[in-house]
Amino acid sequence: MNRRDYLLRKIFFSLVTLAVVVVLNFLLFRVLPGDPVRAVIGRNVRISADTQQALREQFGLDRPVFPDQFLTALGQWARGNLGVSWSLRKPVSEVLLAKLGNTLLLIGLGQILSIILGVALGLLAGWKRKTAVDVGALTFSLIAWAIPTFWLGIILLAAGSTWLGLPTGGIVSPSNVGKPLYTVLPDVTHHLILPTLTLTILYMGEYMLIMRSSIMEVLGEDYILTAKAKGMSHWQVLRKHALKNAMLPIVTLIAINLGFTVSGAIYVETVFSYDGLGKMFQTALVKQDYPLLQGAFLLLAVSVILANFLADILYTYLDPRVKAS
Amino acid sequence: MTSTEPLLSLRHLSTEFSTTDGTVARALEDVSFDVHPGQTVGLVGESGCGKTTTLLSIMRLLPVTARITSGQVLFNGKDLLALSETDMRRYRWKELSIVFQGAMNALNPVMTIGEQIREAIILHDLMDKTHANRRVNELLDMVGIAPSRRDQYPHEYSGGMRQRAMIAMALACQPCLLFADEPTTALDVMVQAQILELLQKIQRLLGLAVVLVTHDLGVVAEVCDTVVVMYGGKVAENGPVDEVYNAPQHPYTQRLLEAFPDLNRPAGSLAVIPGTPPRLNALPPGCRFAPRCHKAFERCRVEAPAETDLGGGHTAACHLLEKAEAHQ
Amino acid sequence: MNPRWLLLKRNLLDFWKTFRRNRMGLAGAFLVLTAILAAVFAPLLTPYTPTETMRDAEGRALTFAPPSVHAPLGTDDAGRDVWTQLVYGARISLTVGFLAGFIAMFIGSLFGITAGYFGGWVDNLLMRLTDVLLVIPDLPLILVLVATVRQLELKVSPLVILILVIGLLYWTSTARLIRSQVLTIKERQYVYRARAIGAGNWHIVRKHILPQIMPLIVANTVLILSTAILIESGLAFLGLGDPTQPSWGTMLNFAFDRNAVSNGAWWFYLPPGLAIIWATLGCVLLGNVLEEMLNPRLASHHLEGEQSIVTQP
Ligand SMILES: Nc1ncnc2c1ncn2[C@@H]1O[C@H](COP(=O)(O)OP(=O)(O)O)[C@@H](O)[C@H]1O
Ligand code: SF4
Ligand SMILES: [Mg+2]
User: Fold this and answer.
1) pTM of the full predicted structure?
2) What ipTM does this complex have?
3) Which residue among B45, B75, B155, C17 is the one 20 to 30 A from B37 at the CA level?
């Protein structure tokens, strides 16, 4: 299969997934009983007249569900109009954009650290199979797998704030709120330590396991024996022949894992009151703010689909074979 | 037969594997044979009789579950088994190189062919990059691959081309001994003939010594000077091809050659003797061939036969021959 | 005695012998069994009920009381015994986990067998569906789904919603695993023979395919259980559980919401988490060992070390 066919296939798959997400989001939206506007107003009398009008217009409830309402919704989503948050009375897209940066910062840090540590440890564990390193790495990933993310967060929160004096939540100290980010960098770093640590532990186990089995599989291949027969040392074989082959599944994994990453962020941000998309998601859930929930779901799902597609493109540059499984 | 000192001399080599169920598989026992400079030695025997294990023991590339329990591997008189791993690495590829069974997976899928060949040259500090690049082109040319294809990846090559590339790679450091482990299995018949022809051409051109592992008795007759017949991890018979083929002494060899009437027909198969080879972790006492041997008698089932020298570099391990020797 | 029973018994004995040697598997079995026993015999393990408030001599509620002889794991913010909640919580956590796990296993096996056995467009469709589900972030999807279903104000327990949502979303890995196994079995001789003599699809699946994949399904189910228990705890922590029937996750939701951390009430937030780990770790250990036994991996690789050489020149 050549690169063009492969990419076309991946584009097609991404579009299908996107369609599933969009339709699902629309259907869930329509499942709400009765007139959503009235439902809101009934419960939340403080909603302003403007917002009520916006809601009515957004729903277009006088028109048929399909195709009119569907197409309208589609058009609005495409233009970034995700409706108005019931609880915050602000456009959903505005709310989401405000939180996106914080979440990307947290997830990005957690991912980078866990990939570096997880890949390195997994490599070592698979290479030095059945040694103490391996047993240790396996035990770690086993426990990382079995620990509920939010509970790990709670434990680290309790331990870190009690013994290390680390902040228990938020992104900056109250006194620094509103100041430009670069001026309060040490404070932000301080706040990021515990949530990042939680995410790193959480993801690391996974990367370690994948890298371990990946490297073990590669090291069992014939071309590794060829490389040894050439007179290379173990280290040279590992670096020149095994590493790249073993890393290939990791690229795919990182993309697939983004969904899982998002779940981690929801828990960690909730526990550490970290002002990002995840915390917002949880708040929206508690306040039953449906437009916000669905907007956030749409944004997260589309981001993950997009990231997967990017990983597929990256893959074509890394693997000369570019074979789809 | 040859007056020169042997290039490679295996002396009583024994290798075993510890298996997952806790037993020990005695894969090689007391294997001895010589390879002289410029000579081609054929190594034949049924699947699982220890041919690959022999080559890997010589190059010390066995897995961690293996143990070389006794013997010597003398290369130019120096025992390779006594070297440190670092010293051994210098011998690999530079003195002894190998073409593995099934070239399909023996090449790294994410490295270009040229890169994989050049790597060996650079590794052994033979020349700088520019010269090495030129040498890669020469090597590819020698095995019949257009040097313009050096930047392609293994999956862009056909099976035969991959095996040619493996051969080019094996020659990269100008070794004096080349092992070829069933270099033509999994290739179609036409390509098999081409690869063998290529090996023969190269052997003559470079004056290489070659150990050719094969299933094909016809190929041995055509290509080899001497033949080593293995059975169940032991050498059954060893000698000049003409002598062994005309007057096989070991019952196993006799059976093989009976089953293979026409030496010029290259379609000989080894799986024609009734019964199966012994399981190496549950060996019969006495001669390993006894359960399948048409000439077996009581002694064969209790005592293993020793190697008998039949003169002229011809040896065989069978009780019947010991008697003959004693009568002489 | 029935020869089929003998055969089964011999296989089980053989299985038990390898299994017994495997310490990880035994540890897993121990963890799972004790958790189940605690759930079943909860009323025998505690003199209190989970909603009972403990009071001091003057009748005041003993809130956030540290562990003592009366309450071995202390009390929560309302003065209820944590140990009692823990063993009763096991009932909820395990029930939700097991039921959701079984639903996932059932759907996964059904789809896996269908895809593997029939192949063609059925296979293609089902596998693309698993691909799509794999890409969509699971927790946001679940949260949106549960929130929407709750909005319908159906007269069902939140636990039923949790069971259904988890069961209906976590079948993809099982489906893939079963499918690949069915594909290899389908190629075997006796399946061809059975088909040649005119056996129907259902007959072949029941007589030839199911018996062979059953062990794998069992092993995989145990693994799925751990996922289901974990997901349930997470959703309950986010407030989607049933507050009147608290699971371990719900307990943690209470503990976190009512500031157990800042009150230093470690006895309130540590035990439920450890209990979750207890159960999931047990399932993972057990499931992995079962799978490994059915499907042994690579014995060694090329860089694991050198052969030993014990010859003396
Ligand atoms: N990695 C290994 N582990 C255990 N036993 C092995 C291993 N490799 C080879 N053997 C044993 O050694 C015997 C010889 O194998 P091999 O040298 O590959 O045979 P051949 O190349 O002649 O087909 C086999 O019968 C097998 O039992
Ligand atoms: S020793 Fe006996 S069994 Fe072995 S080959 Fe000779 S005759 Fe046959
Ligand atoms: Mg072999």
Assistant:
1) 0.83
2) 0.91
3) B45
